[in-house]
């Protein structure tokens, strides 16, 4: 629960996390709260200082850029491997996940629709890369992607995203087509271009 609220931005970067307040918020005991905070500190979602307390981990533009650089590197390797190794079930999953993504319309800039679109966006990217059959590398990708989710939610402007929705959907359709045609060079190129645009969009949080 704490983890989800950190990813969604309900718990803000730098926010003090007090066990008594979290107990009331989540209606659970102190021990589970403390255990969760320790685990989250291991994964760098929480900063824990003995005798001082703990806070939601801070964010920075430099960290965002490093996260995207890491995501870009791992994703391109995974996508190339998925194209080489993916079977018919993988192809069907890619097609299905894109179809679901394309059914979300963001014309009205509704936050609820934006949340649903983000879930389907994540599922599509996961579907692309799962065919790599490299579970350890895929877990690294998931960890980095979840860290980036924190940044994306902080700069969620439904109006801006709805204005770029058609372009985003076209980019993903292009990625899908090159992926399913087994064109690794073009698929990874378009994935790389997509990440470049994504970091420009999310970076707007730091210049707002």
Automatic annotation (TrEMBL):
Transmembrane segments: none annotated. InterPro entries: GntR_C (IPR011711), TF_FadR/GntR_C (IPR008920), Tscrpt_reg_HTH_GntR (IPR000524), WH-like_DNA-bd_sf (IPR036388), WH_DNA-bd_sf (IPR036390). SUPFAM superfamilies: GntR ligand-binding domain-like (SSF48008), Winged helix' DNA-binding domain (SSF46785). GO terms for molecular function: DNA binding; DNA-binding transcription factor activity. It comes from the Bacteria. The keyword Ligase does not apply. Residues 1-59 form the HTH gntR-type domain. Pfam families: FCD, GntR. Keywords: DNA-binding, Transcription, Transcription regulation. PANTHER family: HTH-TYPE TRANSCRIPTIONAL REPRESSOR GLAR, TRANSCRIPTIONAL REGULATOR, GNTR FAMILY. This is Transcriptional regulator.
């Amino acid at each position: 629960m704490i983890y989800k609220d950190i990813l969604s931005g309900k718990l803000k970067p730098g926010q003090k996390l007090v066990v008594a307040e979290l107990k009331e918020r989540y209606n659970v005991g102190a021990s589970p709260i403390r255990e969760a905070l320790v685990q989250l500190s291991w994964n760098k979602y929480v900063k824990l200082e003995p005798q001082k307390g703990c806070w939601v981990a801070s964010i920075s533009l430099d960290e965002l850029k490093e996260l995207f650089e890491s995501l870009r590197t791992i994703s391109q390797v995974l996508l190339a491997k998925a194209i080489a190794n993916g079977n018919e079930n993988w192809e069907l999953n890619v097609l299905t996940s894109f179809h679901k993504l394309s059914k979300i319309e963001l014309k009205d800039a509704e936050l609820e629709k934006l949340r649903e679109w983000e879930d389907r966006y994540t599922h599509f990217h996961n579907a692309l890369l799962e065919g790599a059959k490299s579970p350890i590398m895929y877990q690294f990708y998931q960890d980095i992607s979840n860290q980036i989710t924190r940044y994306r939610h902080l700069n969620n402007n439904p109006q801006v995203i709805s204005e770029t929705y058609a372009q985003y959907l076209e980019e993903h359709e292009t990625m899908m087509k090159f992926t399913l045609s087994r064109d690794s060079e073009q698929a990874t190129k378009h994935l790389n271009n997509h990440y470049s645009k994504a970091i420009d969009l999310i970076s707007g949080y730091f210049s707002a």
